Every structure is written in C-alpha cells, then in structure tokens.
Amino acid sequence: MTETKAYGTWPSPITPERLTEAQVGLGPVTIDEGQIYWLESRPNEGGRTVVVRLRADGRPEDDLTPMPFNVRTRVHEYGGGAFAARGGILLATNFSDQRLYRLEPGRSPVALTPECRAMLRFADHAIDTARGIAFAVREDHRGDGEAVNTIVRLDVEGPENEGVIVVSGHDFFAAPRLSPDGKHLAFISWDHPNMPWDSTTLWLADVGEAGWLSNVRSIAGGDGISVMQPCFSPGGSLYYVSDQTGWWNVYRLDPNQRDADAIHPIAAEFAVPAWSFGQSTYGFLRDQHMIAAYVQNGRWHLSLIDEASGQSTMIDLPYTSMSSLSIEDGDVVMRVGAPDRPAAIIALDPESGRHRVLKTSGTLSISPELISVPEPIAFPTENGETAYALYYAPNNPDFEAADGALPPLIVKSHGGPTGNTSDQFNLAIQFWTSRGFALVDVDYGGSTGYGRAYRERLKGRWGEVDVLDCVNAALYLAKIGKADPTRIAITGGSAGGFTTLAALTFHDVFSAGASHYGVSDLEALAQETHKFESRYLDNLIGAYPEAIDVYRARSPIHHVDQLTSPMIFFQGLEDVIVPPNQAEMMVDALRSKGIPVAYLAFEGEQHGFRKAETIHAVRRAELAFYGRVFGFTPADGFSDLVIDNLS
C-alpha cells in the first residue's frame, strides 16, 4: 500500500551509513602476465587505496599493500597513474611519503626512491623490463618557487635513487609510453597557461641501451590541439587521441608514414579531460584490430574496430560508463558503470561480447524499484544555445505525494569545471530521490563529451555560462512541472562549489545552496593554488593580474551584499587545492549579514572527502539543512545541525 507523504519527508532505507557500508571505490585496472590488478579505495579504512590482485582461484587478494600503505600520488595534486605492472614488476607510490615502491606478494613494499618529506613525487610509470628501469613523471618540490616537472629514469632493482632526468624543459609532462621493442618512448608535454585539454604536444624519442633518450622530435599536437593517450600497437605503430577536428578521436602514425590516419573518425569523444594520469580508452587485440570506448551524447559505447577493413562492430554491454581499458593477448579487462547497478571491474570476451564481473564497488543492497534512473534532457539556455543534463525524478515505491504537489529540486553542478556528469549508479543521488527530492545533474557549457566547441563555451566566461546553464536547467524543470519553483537548491564541489556560490550571489532562482570545498574568491585561488591549476584561470577568466577587475566582479566574496539565500559549507582542513579560507571568508560574511549559514570543517580531509565518518556527517547535515530552510522535517530526524541566524 502506497502512503501519501510530502516530498522530502519520505523515509528511505538509504541511510548516510549505507553510503559507505561495504562500498569501495574502484580505480584503474590492468592485466599483466595473465594477472589482473586494480586499485580499491576503502572509506572504512580512512579512504586508504590498495592494490588488489585476482588469484588463480578467482578470489581477490590485497596482500601487496599491507596496512598502512596507501596507493596515491600527489603529482598535479589530482594524482592518478600511482600504480603500474609490466613483466611481473609492480610499482606503486605511497601517499604518506610519496616514495615509489616495488611490490611483491608476501613481502613488505620495498622503497626505490629516497625519503625526502614528500618533496619528490612520482606518477605514470612506464616499466622497461629488459633494462630493469622505469620512466616516470617526477614532480620536484625541493627548490624555491614552482615545482619542477620532468621525466626521469629510475632503477627498479634498487638501490634507492631519485631518478635521472631524461626529459625536461616544459612545465608539464605525462604519459611516457614505451614501444614493444623498447627502442622508442612517446610522451606528452604542455606549458602554462594551457591545461592538457587546451594544447599539448606529442613527442617521440629513441631509447639507447642505458635508457638515455636521443632524436627527440615533436610529431603531433600544438597550439589549439589537445593530444593524449599515446600507445604503441603490438606491431610498433604509434597511436594517440587528438581533438584536431573538434572531437577527441584516435589516430595512427605508422613508422614509415609522415601523416597520421584517423581511426574510426566520428563526432564522439574517445577520451576525457586529463585531470589525472593513466587514462586508457583503447587497446589492441592484435595488430590493426582494436577495441575502443567513446562517449556520445553522455553515454559510453564500446566498439571492436578492424582497421584493415574499416569495419566497426558495437559490443553490446549493459553498461553506459567505461574506462581503464587493459588488454593482453586477447584478454580484456575494464572498469564499467551503469545507472541501475554498482560500478564493476569486468573481464570481456570481445568475440562473443560475453563478460564476467570480477569485482563490484558494493552490493545493490536496495530494491531495484527504489532506483531513480536518470533521464537525459536538453534544454534552452543563453544566446539560443542548448545545454544538457541528467534528470532524476523522486522515486520510492512505498510513498507518493499529494496530487498537484511538486518536489523540491537539487541542481547539481559538477567539478572541474572541465569535467562532466555521469549516469553511473550513485547511491548518494538515490539518497535524495528516495526521500522525495528531484535532482538534475547539469552538463553546463564547458563540460566534456560534446566536442571542443561546447567545451570552449566556457572560455573566458567561467562564472557566467556555467551559472546560466544551471539557472536555465532549474527554470526549465519548473516550467514543465517537474520542480517546485519556490524550493530549488543548488549544490556543488570544488569548481562546482564556485558555480553554486555564483548562482546564489548573482541570481534569485535558488532558495538554498550547499558548497562542498567550493571557491569563493577567484583572486585568492589564482594566487594560492598549486602548480597544475596555477594558470588555469587564464583561459577561464583572463590573465592575472591584468584581468583583476574581472576576477573581483565574478567572485562571490566581493558581492555578499547580493546574497539572500541560506547556505551550508563543507570543508576539508588539509585542502591545498581550495584552502579552507575560501569557505571561511564566505561564512564570516554571511554571519555578519544575518543570513542563515552553517559551516562544517573536517580535520584530516583534503580536496574531496574520503573518510566514512565525514561522508556520513556531510549527508546528514545537508539533508537537515534543506529540511530546516524548506520547512519540512526529514523522516530521519537529523536535528542537531547548528544554523546561525536561523530562528
């Protein structure tokens, strides 16, 4: 029997504790000498990430990284590429000291790099088993001023060494990749003020017997072209992804050719922005036969491509999100996701299309009837443009609202801002929809997955285009009767937190907001952030300090007098990407103005929350906050939240 209750007050079995209960984050997966490895992030172990290997009997084993080893690199602060396996050699970076270690079953990790208080950081390793070395990106923080990024050669047999620089002279490097015969190394570079999705260069070098590089030459990319993911085929041809046509497509450069050939050119993206190292969206079954994943209109697809015939065959899988593709001798493993099931690591038979699940991020501990499956929507926005989003309707089979009632709406602004939404199953979203909230996850202008032109809508206009697209998503849903126009909240983390704050400051559509480690002062961000993003705002806002007036005009902290809506702030006190003072300045200003405001700060948390207890506290507080400011009592009864200035 369905019970009638007001939206937002529906009891739900998805408690805050359930968001982390038996849940793990699944990281990159790789296959080496028939062994399958992946990374697993565990909220209930303080957010620790471990290497998991699949035993011959099919059981996962995590003895390679015993407590307290935590596989995570701080290169670029966002990390990625913290683990590599090739020829039976396993390497991983430990978060606490940032040293590189060799891993072996049954042994404690063996340090390969010296102790230097995390001032040397390593990522994106290319292992050369024949020479007993590895090439890696190194970020050196030992000097004054900006960190120095290089590619180094490391001895993987020991003793401890800090690496010998083999490539330098650019602000950033990524993706050192070795040819099958060990004679060539490809890598990517870029320089300030570019980000890797703006302009990069692909280089190719000859590798000598001792691992020294010679004949280093640029072969692709350049101004206005983003090149990424270099990869050698079994036959030695160099492949890469480039957006030279406006879409990230795959190209092949044969050793005997001068110009590269596009492989399966299509208006789709075979890559995502390189916020972290180690992307892999394509690989080779055998020479000139490849498998590639691409995203089109927000949904991922997987294709088997025969380069000789030009034929492409879609592999039908019950998944809409795909990443971290790894192939060895016809064996295929990858990380996948879908709207109606937890993320998983799978093994795929490419010929039959059959797959088996090796590991899931958790059990689906709720009824499938409770899941709100997202609906892709396109809606009108500024200047006659179209923007995109995923809409989640309120859904709980045990409850319904009174006739004519409209649900409160949460507008979610993703981070980046060069990023995108995903329809991958997210229990945190179901937490809201199962309680009677509607939610819209907005792919505002600047998001990826829609080509370079859509991505560059945000160029010079961060704080305007993204905000207007979120505003128009809310107005569109209210207009078609899917949201209560008087109860619309906006939430976001990091860059999405800035969009949240700007939307509340400069527009009156939203009646509440939640900022998760969000930016409030663009000028402070430009002055204080880390190297990777230190010039990011040049393209999003303008060069600093030349465009200082624009920075101040778009920074919510300078326009608190325009704020009227209640807000809640969540902040990690060890966040170096968006330091705590960004939130605290806004909280102080709102308190002084008499606007309802709540602030929760967390010791030991950085940029993004990883600890189970933090995740629980944040979700309880945000629900209680919406209940208090929207005038209803959540069924869970979370009532201990302190909101200043709220009578």
Explain this structure.
The chain is mainly β. It has a domain at 3-8 and 375-630: Alpha/Beta hydrolase fold, catalytic domain (Rossmann fold). Helices cover 14% and strands 35% of the residues. The strands form nine sheets. An eight-stranded mixed β-sheet has the order 30-31-34-33-35-36-37-38, sandwiched between helices. A four-stranded antiparallel β-sheet has the order 2-3-4-5, with no helix packed on it.
Keywords:
647 residues; Rossmann fold; 8-stranded mixed beta sheet; 4-stranded antiparallel beta sheet
Rg calculated over all Cα atoms: 24 Å
Proportion of beta-strand residues: 25-35%
**CATH C-level label of the domain at 3-8 and 375-630:** Alpha Beta
CATH superfamily of the domain at 3-8 and 375-630: Alpha/Beta hydrolase fold, catalytic domain
Helix content: 10-25%
Taken from the alpha-carbon principal axes, the silhouette is globular
What is the quaternary state of this protein? single chain
Neighbour order of strands in the largest sheet:
30-31-34-33-35-36-37-38
N/C terminus separation: 38 Å
Structural class: mainly beta
Question: Could you give a short description of this structure?
Answer:
With 647 residues, the chain is mainly β. The chain is built from nine helices and 38 strands. Strand 4 and strand 5 form a beta hairpin.
